[in-house]
Design goal:
9-stranded mixed sheet, 18 helices, 9 strands, 56% helix, nucleotide-binding, GTP-binding
Length: 604
């Protein structure tokens, strides 16, 4: 499906697929066949989710936000250490089951799973390069309902492997809980990564941890909460809910931990649509990224080609010259092919429009025809000779007018056309005109006389038909004579134009050779674009959940009546850290339009 050399198109290979489950399995196979093993495994992950219906709740945030502590509290056990597990995978999935840890190691296509006590997890993971995934199991009752928790490294990690591991695992997340601590809500890393999560179609829930650090006398909680909202709005982030929690002081008046727990249970209870949407949306994102992966080498090759030519402008100039040359070739070929037809059309129009027998000439024709009628006599004595003389006089007068009409309305223009044809062929114009003049039909008196039909009837009735027949025959004779005389000139002109077209084709061929690499790359791009369209169309045909805003699939938050902060702080006041500027300032400093991605942040 996605192999450029494949004979079948993506549409053909997915024609028999009628369910999302079949689409996931088929697409995973196709990814593997094209060498995209990572995305093939990710697609199989989604297939497993689709089949077992597990909802995965991912927890993201920077290192000190307290993600692991939140997960431990949700599970009611110390499963995760406060420091990261020493493995390049560094993404941990918590599932329901007897308390243990499982380590998945991979060697090429071969994967193995080792079960170890949780207490030995850190030691086992020292050799992190071979560890692909870490699974922890705990018998938390609400996980038994078909939920799993995903703990990711800090988004501000300096280790690229941590970021890559997070991004590689996020396709499994159905809902993302973004955890920040009270003093770092304004972190650009938070907003940039959360924006990528939202753009990937993941429902987003915001958790502000360590709310026990809040000091009402420094900033009213309502003001702080509004500042958080404005900071998120500035980055076009619209979390489905924002929770303020404290794991250090469970009884803190602003602590919404119980509300958060209840809300998460509701999500698990209503998980079916979320899981289906999450799998379908993630599958589409994988398909798009797979196509992007296949397009990237083409873009790199084109960039190298353009640099070899001297840059983008030089490449554009080359293509413009090639396009102009192609246009010149087409014009020359068209002109060569149309030499004869254009001449014939011009001659046909000339003969059709020529007024060979005007009214005065028709009157002379009628006078001559009257002289041809039986009973026509001139004088009484010697009437036979006089009659014949009058008949010949009338014919001569008619013939002179006829010949003048032919000369003025046809022959002058025909000779001009022959001169032009000879000139275009590079031949002697005067000679061509003289030969044409000699080749024209006489169309004289005898020709006019023999054209009269015996017994034609009264001249008044026959004259128009006679003149029309004369005109048609004259046009036919002239046309044949002109075309015969013009053919050598037209052939020579056609040969000259064909030579010019051949020279232009040769020049265009030289430019085409320079553009061959670009054309090859363009053909690959067109093939991949067709594959992309077919792949997404097949996905569209089998998806079951349509949602413009995936957060509408989440249940509503049921909050108890807000507990007000006491007039005085319950603990000793802490001076804010020197780097703390507060969410209000962060909102002011956030970009007005689309946010600038943070350094080191990467697309999911």
């Amino acid at each position: 499906m996605l192999d450029l050399n494949a004979k079948q198109t993506a549409a053909e290979t997915t024609a028999g697929i009628s369910s999302m489950e079949a689409w996931l399995e088929h697409t995973a196979d196709q990814f593997r066949e094209t060498g995209d093993l990572g995305r093939s495994r990710q697609m199989l992950d989604l297939l497993g989710k689709w089949r077992d219906g597990t909802i995965i709740l991912a927890f993201c945030g920077h290192f000190s936000a307290g993600k692991s502590t939140v997960i431990n509290r949700l599970c009611g056990a110390e499963l995760l250490p406060s420091s990261p597990i020493p493995t390049s995978a560094n993404v941990v999935t918590v599932r329901y089951g007897k308390r243990r840890a499982e380590i998945m190691r991979r060697d090429g296509e071969q994967a193995s799973v080792v079960s170890v006590p949780i207490e030995q997890l850190a030691e086992v993971c020292r050799d992190g390069a071979a560890v692909e995934r870490v699974y922890l199991y705990n018998e938390a009752d609400w996980l038994k309902e078909g939920a799993a928790l995903l703990d990711t490294p800090g988004v501000d990690s300096a280790d690229p492997a941590h970021r890559e591991a997070t991004e590689a695992a996020m396709h499994l997340a159905d809902v993302v809980f973004y955890v920040t601590d009270y003093n770092h809500v304004q972190s650009e890393y938070n907003f940039a990564f959360a924006k990528e999560v939202a753009d990937a179609g993941k429902p987003l829930i915001w958790i502000v941890n360590q709310i026990d650090k809040h000091r009402e006398r420094e900033i009213a909680f309502d003001v702080y909460r509004d500042d958080v909202k404005r900071a998120l709005d500035a980055w076009q982030l619209k979390p489905a809910a924002i929770f303020y929690v404290s794991l250090k002081e469970p009884d803190h008046p602003l602590n919404e931990w119980t509300t958060l727990e209840r809300y998460m249970r509701r999500i698990v209870e209503d998980k079916e649509a979320l899981v289906r949407f999450g799998v379908e949306r993630a599958a589409r994102e994988l398909a798009v990224s797979h196509i992007a992966m296949r397009t990237a080498p083409i873009e790199q090759a084109r960039q190298a080609w353009m640099e070899a030519l001297g840059g983008t402008e030089a490449a554009q100039a080359l293509r413009q010259r090639w396009e102009a040359q192609q246009a010149a070739v087409r014009a020359a070929e068209a002109e060569a092919q149309s030499v004869s037809s254009a001449f014939q059309e011009a001659l046909q129009k000339l003969l059709r429009d020529a007024n060979i027998t005007p009214a005065a000439t028709r009157d002379l024709a009628q006078s001559y025809l009257e002289a041809r009628m039986p009973g026509f006599r001139v004088g009484l004595l010697f009437s036979g000779a006089k009659t014949e003389q009058e008949r010949e006089r009338r014919l001569a007068t008619f013939a002179d007018a006829w010949r003048e009409g032919i000369r003025a309305n046809v022959e002058v223009h025909v000779l001009r056309m022959i001169r032009e044809a000879a000139r275009a062929a590079g031949m002697d114009e005067a000679k061509a005109a003289a030969e044409m003049e000699a080749a024209l039909p006489a169309l004289d008196g005898p020709w006019l006389a023999q054209a009269v039909q015996p017994g034609a009837g009264a001249p008044s009735e026959y004259t128009l038909n006679y003149c029309r027949a004369l005109g048609d025959e004259a046009r036919s004779l002239i046309r044949r004579a002109v075309l015969a005389q013009a053919e050598p000139y037209l052939a020579a002109q056609r040969a000259r134009l064909e030579r010019e077209a051949a020279a232009l084709r040769a020049q265009a061929g030289e430019l085409s050779a320079e553009l061959a690499e670009d054309e090859r790359l363009a053909a690959q791009e067109r093939a991949i674009a067709e594959q992309r369209a077919a792949l997404l169309a097949s996905w569209e045909a089998v998806r079951s959940i349509e949602a413009d805003d995936p957060q509408r699939l989440l249940p509503p938050v049921e909050r108890p009546q807000t507990r007000l902060m006491p007039a005085q702080d319950t603990g000793a006041a802490e001076a804010p850290p020197p780097a703390l500027r507060g969410p209000r300032l962060a909102a002011a400093e956030a970009p007005a339009g689309a946010p600038v991605q943070a350094a080191g942040a990467r697309r999911l």
